[in-house]
Amino acid sequence: MELKLFAASAAFYTAATALGFAYLFSKDERWSLWMLRLLGAGVLLHLASFGLRLKLFWEIPENRFFFPINSFFGALSFLALAVSVTFFLVEGRHRLGILGAFVLPWACLASWGALWRAQAMQGTEIHGLVPALQSYWINIHPMVLMASYAVFGNAFGVGLALLVQERQVKSRKPGELCYRLPAIEELDNLNYKLIVTGFPILTVGIIMGGIWAYGAWGRFWGWDPKETWALITALVYAAYLHMRFIAGWRGRKAVYMSMFGFACVVFTFIGVNFLSELHGYLSNG
Amino acid sequence: MKSLRLFRSVRFNIGLFFAIAVASAIGTLLPQAPETPEKVDVFMRAYPFWGRLFGALGLFHLYQSWWYLGMLVLMAFDIVVCKLWKTPPDPGLVSMPPELAPEADMEGEFDKAAASLRLKPMHASFLIEEPPAQVVGRLRAFMEKEGYRIQEALREEKSARWSLVGTRHRLQRWGSYVAHVALVVILLGGLIKQLYGFVEMVPVLEGRSRNMQNKPDWELFVDKFTVQYYEGTATPKRFASDLRVEKNGEELGRKTIIVNDPLDIGGVRFYQASWGAGGMFRSVTLRLGRQELQLPQRTALPIPGTKIHAVAEMMLPNFTVGADGRADSASLDLKNPAVKLVFKVGGVPTRPLWLLQRSPEVAFAEGDDGVLSHIPPPPFKLAEIDPILFSGIQVAYDPGFKVVLGGAVAWLVGMILLFYLHRRRFWFLVGPAQGDGRAQVLIGAWSSRGSQEFQKEFNAFVGRLQLELGGGAPGLSPAP
Lengths: 285, 480
Prior knowledge:
The complex is a heterodimer.
Chain A: H1 2-25, H2 29-57, H3 72-94, H4 100-121, H5 141-170, H6 176-180, H7 184-217, H8 225-245, H9 251-269
Helix pairs in contact in A: 1-2, 1-4, 2-3, 3-4, 3-5, 4-5, 5-7, 5-9, 7-8, 7-9, 8-9
Chain B: H1 5-8, H2 10-29, H3 37-46, H4 48-56, H5 66-84, H6 106-119, E1 122-128, H7 132-145, E2 149-156, E3 161-168, H8 175-196, E4 198-205, E5 209-211, E6 218-229, E7 236-247, E8 250-258, E9 263-265, E10 268-288, E11 291-296, E12 301-302, E13 308-316, E14 319-321, E15 327-329, E16 338-345, E17 348-349, E18 353-356, E19 363-366, E20 372-375, E21 380-397, H9 401-420, E22 424-432, E23 439-447, H10 451-469, E24 475-476
Antiparallel strand pairs in B: 1-23, 1-24, 2-3, 3-22, 4-21, 5-6, 6-7, 7-8, 9-10, 10-11, 10-21, 12-13, 13-16, 14-15, 16-17, 16-18, 18-19, 19-20, 22-23
């Protein structure tokens, strides 16, 4: 049932994304409105599925009151939820409509990834937590970091929209899209605002991990690949902030930097599984 | 300081960020000796040339190498040079836009101030049907109600001209400063750990003790070690040691430690880190037909009804045949336990046999040179092994942790101040409008979030202010 609800929410996310693309090429405001509605429905189904997951997960006494985020499925599912909710908030506030096509694919990718994983593992990976993860920090540290990933995912989408818009503006025959996308300056500003929201969350999440590591192994920092890549990600975004604040970079150059930061986020989340045993979802750690 | 210009340049520091990022990334792709020495060995054997080269560059101890640490120190130095050289450069309450310095000529001051406010990206002006002195009083009251701290910058009673400055969330200007100090503090905490702290792994067999290396007179006793698994899996549910620490026979502390819950003795912390099996066991049980024979380690016991004695020599927890053809253990986990048995017939030992507990169909005989050869499975089985496990206790002393924690809290505060507080600054010039008794109000504004985002708020603010003061339609600055 958990998986069925989850699959339904993934279907809604996919439909919302499709509407987002449809809106990109049509003038009909209804597409945008329905995109948001379908997304909302997807989030509700996802929450229901998550609730069921919690119930099943907590049937194992050692897991009680910890969040089921110790598996690849759990992490991807949570990430899809975080991206969708963040986008819902951003879109609800700014009502740009057009951003769905740029941001929602990430929610789709994460939820399809989770479905693929559930298929491969023949289930939604509800296991008992290993002793290292039986700590209240599991409810905080990964959640905080994934929230920052979701915010950066949104920033990436906005950056992409900026690049598209810039091409449109520079081209001799700007298409329909040019008039539908927000102004470059507005996109640049939104991209920046999202990164300034995500950066403190990311760094504080990393520090929380250090405090947990000190409680579990007696060291704040251990150069585990996941830690190191999170640090690299933070450095790249710090470089972006310095470029904007001090060197006054705007527009395309700044967006490239922020996109590079998001590439680091993706690698930290997915790629590092092949390097780290400590933080690997694949090693079931 | 001219000589420090390089270290203060944005380009240089962004370059430094990238150098640290790239070096850190390399460290995650190459095996690191402090964490996985065995993988470094494998790499060295596979690529001798590159191995030697990388070794010489310190790439296998990358995060401890002088050049990597040097970059971190340089970063701390640059932060000090860039950020902390001067205390916050902006006192927060700037009486006038910074390009103006007060001078003796007051009339000229006001004119210059007015001209400069009109150049601000956000400015507005309007007329009020009241004398300037009254307008100033109500303006003050309004600003205070809106949560602004307001100060008088200039006053000229004779011609009734005032200049006021109002600020809100002034703390925001400390954000960047606090965050950068926090980074230096965190790095200092790490340095303190490197200089005065230690980490060591002390494997202690259950029921025995072992002395520490860093504190040689401290003795760790593991009185009991338990491990539980989730049913039907090899995933551990809980593992715990009844740990006792003594110094020259005097007890310093005791506790049942589990992962995430260490024992703390004056800042030295004892963590339950791992467990494993060495080669020790209490007994192994051999099944010979219907009979069972329990053999303690290295103790010859007769097989009932025969003249043969059996000895269980040693155990390997994760049996494998090594590259040299000899028996080896791939790890210290009890994944594939095997026991070496020797039989003695009339006191003469036979060739040693290796039996695998989980694969009874496989057996090896060991030659004089230690090389193994397959043999058909013997008519007896390894029914049970009762291993003596060791508990891996990680002992860590980190006097820098509290410093790091302080830095972490400061970082959090700095981030909140810098990014989540919105500092706004308003400058007002109030004076008589030319030719009549009305007051003219000129407003300029600045926001820490930039004019684009602030424009809407500014327009709404001016609207409210005007309503409060009762004036005509304002001349607003055009949208940027």
